[in-house]
Amino acid sequence: MNHIDVTRQGQCIYVRLTGEFARDAAVDMDAVLAAVSGPPTFVLDLANACHLGGPGIAYLIKLQTRLSTLGGALFLRDLSDSVTTELAMRDLSGFFRVVDGWDDDMGEEILPLLAIR
Hints:
The chain has four helices and five strands; from the N terminus they run E-E-H-E-H-E-H-E-H. It has helices spanning about 25-35, 55-70, 80-90, 110-115, and strands at about 1-10, 10-20, 40-50, 75, 95-100.
């Protein structure tokens, strides 16, 4: 079971995932993304995510590719220990831009400066 909270400020979409990644989370995130015109910045907070699994990882790869095609960017924020382990096991730790210590009050322009990758 999962829950997502979405906050949007202009082109910046902030999503907090709680629990396991499930198909409904992907559907909800796609719906939010479809409502944005122009190149979006998508911040996915995974501090409370307990499991992504194969479908979640595949969705994140697809989401990053889609955002890149649109001229936008994906940032993963505050990875839980289990998500960090899942990414490392699949050798994807360096594939995503991970941000720690970002607060949405800082603004989206600071994200690339804080990203590990």
